[in-house]
Amino acid sequence: MLLYIPTKVIEEPGAVLNHKEDLSALGTKCMVVTGKHSARENGSLADVQEALESQHIPYVVFDKIEENPSIETVMEARDTAVAEQCDFYLGIGGGSPLDAVKAISLMAYHKGETAEYLYKANVDSTAYPVVCIPTTCGTGSEANGYSILTIHEKRTKSSLPHKVFPKMALIDPKYLLSVPASVLRNTALDALCHLVESELNTKATDYSRMFVEAGFKAWKPNRDILKSGKLESEEDAARMLRASTFGGMAIAHTGTSLPHGLSYGLTYESGTAHGKACARFLAGYLSQVAQKDRLHVLDAAGFLDLDDLQEFLRATCGLEEIPDALAEHIVLDLSQNPKKLSAAPFAVDPSVLYAIVNY
Ligand code: NAP
Ligand code: FE
Description:
Elements: E1 8-11, H1 15-18, H2 20-24, E2 30-35, H3 38-41, H4 44-54, E3 59-65, H5 71-83, E4 88-93, H6 95-109, E5 130-134, E6 148-151, E7 156-159, E8 168-171, H7 181-199, H8 206-219, H9 223-228, H10 234-254, H11 258-270, H12 274-279, H13 282-287, H14 291-301, H15 306-316, H16 324-335, H17 338-343, H18 350-357
Parallel strand pairs: 1-8, 2-3, 2-4, 4-5, 5-8
Antiparallel strand pairs: 6-7
This protein binds NADP nicotinamide-adenine-dinucleotide phosphate and fe (iii) ion.
Fe (iii) ion (FE) binds at residues 139, 190, 194, 260, 274, 278.
């Protein structure tokens, strides 16, 4: 068994400004990495700027991270970071900026390397210190070492072999309050998938299950909020963020499984948001596991049976039809990903993958 999350996690209202002094120890110049708009709109970037300025830490803002960030964008940010001599990195946003900031920090540290280094296994994974501030309730990227980038050449996304754990996660529920219903729903479904895929995983241990159990406990009461698409209070937001962070901690130990593996090609080809793409394959995945495991997980998440889950998914994010050619592409894509295939606690062959896709 193994338990390893070297990230100081602070979840409280005002987390960024409350812990501004901790930032000075991390470096002398910061690159702040965000998406295109939301960090400006939800107040998180302003808090970070105030915190850095109060500590007299110079910084540059790189605000060009797209959804499902690409290798090209990471390398563009790395070049700016090296030119600006940044030695610590702070990501604000959903999983896209948080995953990107880890890759940028890694590549800035290895400034003589080309983009190939991102996917080189068994090489030095040292990166400059990273701080993550999540503003969606899905990925848990703030509490794990994963970075998933889009590889245009392969028409899919893939996780880096490097693990770059943030030094610190600063979680303030107020940034989530302004999230649109679609992002709230899609990201909460991503968190649900992390919990399910970690629980029903060949790498699960009692340690990883501890995070899964805590995550389900926080996820389960949110069904009505997800149906309405509206967060009414900071407590609701904090609970949903907690479910997401626990999910991130769980997959830090197990990785994800087939729904995530199938989602990458779907997102690439049809632009389906990450959480929605994973959730598309959730009931199909559950249909393949032993009945007692299926019932355990459904109950933990607050669903009566698979039909109840499917109806909820249809009502919250829709379940898109997948044409045959696309099914072929995503099954082939996953078939080349042995790590994801070996995570499933049942025998996997193409017919099983098609059964999940067509469920
Ligand atoms: P995202 O791609 O980071 O963001 C989705 C959208 O939500 C963007 O338009 C973003 O706007 C907006 N947004 C973010 N926070 C907001 C807020 N508080 N208020 C209003 N709008 C907000 O979405 P995500 O689902 O969180 O992350 C998906 C990415 O994470 C994928 O690349 C996926 O592969 C990765 N992922 C990583 C892990 C992991 O373990 N590390 C796990 C699962 C998924 P802006 O662009 O303007 O910011
Ligand atoms: Fe995910």
